[in-house]
């Protein structure tokens, strides 16, 4: 109320309406001061009695302050009315938990006498805490999205560098192809021109020979005509026969023409066949996004080396978090073969596995964790699934891995992985019982520093519409093991029956 007193007119004691300022410094409502001066017949101040000969001026600052105060009072009154009980007109200060509604003190004693009641502020505090708890998942999601946005920016920058590097490699590879095609074009055009030159020289030599032969004969006959008369007449018949003889007409042969079919026939195929020498086909292409920081993959994605130090550029979004590099393509049904050149490396691992898609690989690398492979440690070899170690006669420099379909004794489809020395074509290890129905990715683990493991190219093959023709296994193939068991059981029964019959 102190503020309202300060904003009240001394004459009417209400809040100023159109306040004016007198020369003495006091303010009044314009209507109040005019009425006062009219009734008193003097222009003195009602407060200090000082004369004010000049007309009062509007007190704009005070008027704005009063209008603002009145608006706030009106708003507060409306709000207080809304917060009053519609039935009893009392201030609402309680909350009925039973009926889930706000009430006043009278309501508590009457309609809500036996209900569960608590102060309004306590209810508000409790429910605000619940709302904050409900918002925490959304806040976490927002935080995650913000981190994802930062990660997306990192991946975008990484992709930009990948685009630049890949574009550079594509240009280099096509530059090699352009150079090869240019050389091939020049070579074939040179061969065409060489054939034309050879045929032209041959034709010129043939024509020159005929001209020389006929010229020599004419010169000979002219000399014979210079003989004395008796000698001339004696040799006349032979001279005449010699003069009548002409060279046979030159036969037209296709050999004199350019062999166009040799130069244009299957031209593109022949160029492609020659191009295979500079365009090797690799059955396995390594996935650079699965490369650990201390591994280095070659630009053509066919070899990997274990480095002493971490690489400068690490993957922004690694698809595999283990000390291995996966192939870029997984294999499902069918037979798939690839060769890995080990060189003089004495420590390595290779095989097939399920793709982990960024999840940390649980150690050890075993079939239970989706890994089937072979490891070399010096002169000893072992499967990833066991600790049993074995040796082989000759340590292979190139290992061939073969993944193919297999069937158990009950004819159930599964896979098997075999390992052999590619140079001697000698088989030395095999893993059976590999689950089927899910793609398996080749993997390699180089363990010797600075000794690369390299995928070797294979001869390119033309397939039907670019697809491998699949063959359904025969009954004998599917149930080979079961048939063998039945055969030996049958033999055992025959032996038992024969023994009983003899006894």
From TrEMBL:
SUPFAM superfamilies according to UniProt: B-box zinc-binding domain, Concanavalin A-like lectins/glucanases, RING/U-box
B30.2/SPRY domain boundaries: 264-462
TM helices/strands, residue ranges: 481-499
GO MF, one annotated term: ubiquitin-protein transferase activity
GO-annotated biological processes: protein ubiquitination
Domain RING-type: 9-49
Domain (B box-type): residue spans on this chain: 80-120
Keyword Glycoprotein tagged: no
Recorded coiled-coil stretches: 182-231
Keywords: Coiled coil, Membrane, Metal-binding, Transmembrane, Transmembrane helix, Zinc, Zinc-finger
UniProt xrefs under PROSITE patterns: B302_SPRY, ZF_BBOX, ZF_RING_1, ZF_RING_2
PANTHER family: E3 UBIQUITIN-PROTEIN LIGASE TRIM
Record-given protein name: Tripartite motif-containing protein 35-like isoform X1
């Amino acid at each position: 109320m102190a503020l309202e007193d300060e904003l009240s007119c001394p004459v009417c004691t209400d809040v100023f309406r159109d306040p004016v300022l007198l020369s003495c410094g006091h303010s009044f409502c314009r209507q109040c001061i005019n009425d006062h001066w009219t009734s008193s017949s003097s222009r003195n101040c009602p407060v200090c009695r000082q004369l004010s000969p000049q007309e009062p001026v509007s007190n704009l600052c005070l008027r704005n302050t009063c209008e603002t105060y009145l608006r706030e009072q009106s708003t507060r009154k409306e709000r207080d009315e809304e917060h009053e009980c519609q039935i009893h007109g009392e201030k609402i200060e309680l909350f009925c938990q039973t009926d889930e509604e706000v009430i006043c003190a009278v309501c508590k004693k009457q309609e809500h006498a036996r209900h569960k009641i608590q102060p309004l502020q306590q209810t508000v505090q409790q429910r605000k805490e619940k709302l904050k708890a409900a918002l925490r998942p959304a806040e976490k999601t927002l935080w995650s999205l913000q981190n994802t946005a930062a990660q997306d920016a990192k991946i975008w920058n990484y992709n930009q560098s990948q685009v630049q590097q890949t574009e550079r490699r594509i240009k280099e590879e096509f530059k090699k192809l352009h150079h090869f095609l240019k050389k091939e074009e020049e070579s074939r055009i040179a061969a065409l021109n060489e054939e034309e030159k050879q045929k032209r020289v041959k034709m010129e030599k043939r024509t020159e020979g005929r001209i020389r032969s006929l010229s020599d004969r004419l010169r000979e006959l002219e000399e014979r005509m210079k003989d004395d008369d008796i000698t001339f007449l004696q040799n006349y018949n032979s001279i005449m026969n010699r003069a009548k003889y002409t060279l046979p007409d030159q036969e037209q042969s296709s050999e004199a023409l350019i062999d166009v079919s040799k130069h244009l026939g299957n031209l593109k195929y022949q160029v492609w066949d020659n191009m295979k020498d500079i365009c090797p086909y690799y059955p396995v292409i390594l996935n650079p996004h699965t490369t650990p920081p201390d591994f280095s993959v070659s630009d053509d994605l066919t070899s990997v080396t274990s480095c002493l130090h971490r690489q400068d550029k690490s993957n922004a979004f690694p698809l595999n978090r283990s000390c291995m590099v996966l192939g870029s393509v997984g294999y499902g049904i069918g037979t798939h073969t690839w060769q890995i050149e080990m060189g003089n490396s004495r420590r390595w691992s290779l095989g097939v596995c399920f793709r982990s898609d960024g999840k940390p690989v649980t150690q050890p690398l075993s079939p239970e964790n989706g890994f089937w492979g072979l490891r070399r440690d010096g002169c000893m070899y072992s499967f990833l699934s066991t600790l049993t170690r074995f040796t082989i006669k000759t340590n292979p420099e190139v290992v061939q891995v073969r993944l193919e379909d297999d069937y158990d004794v009950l004819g159930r489809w599964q896979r098997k992985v075999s390992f052999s020395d590619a140079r001697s074509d000698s088989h030395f290890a095999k893993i059976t019982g590999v689950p089927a129905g899910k793609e398996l990715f080749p993997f390699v683990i180089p363990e010797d520093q600075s000794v690369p493991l390299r995928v070797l190219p294979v001869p390119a093959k033309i397939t039907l519409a670019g697809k491998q023709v699949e063959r359904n296994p025969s009954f004998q193939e599917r149930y080979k093991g079961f048939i063998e068991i039945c055969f030996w059981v049958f033999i055992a029964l025959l032996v038992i029956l024969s023994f009983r019959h003899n006894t």
